[in-house]
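User: Please predict the structure of the protein below. I'd like the answer in structure-token form so I can feed it into my own downstream comparison script.

Assistant: Understood. Taking the following sequence of 79 residues as input:
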Amino acid sequence: MNIASQINEVLRHVEFDDERNVITLTQTFPTTPDDLWDACTNPDRLARWFEPLTGDLRRGGRYRLLDSGTVGTIETCEA
């Protein structure tokens, strides 16, 4: 799959309020649940499809995206 096709497969939902911004990305992948969970919680794998980051990748953990400088807190983290 080329990058343009990949981008078009992602569903995006953005919510804004006075306290925070929430961005949800949804996509279907042909994989196992365990492999998908690893792709979403393993910093090396996240860097391959999202952006390099540092931080504590668990509920309540803080993270920093290295390319954009975005920082945040993980509010939900369930396999």
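That's the full token string. The mean pLDDT is 87.
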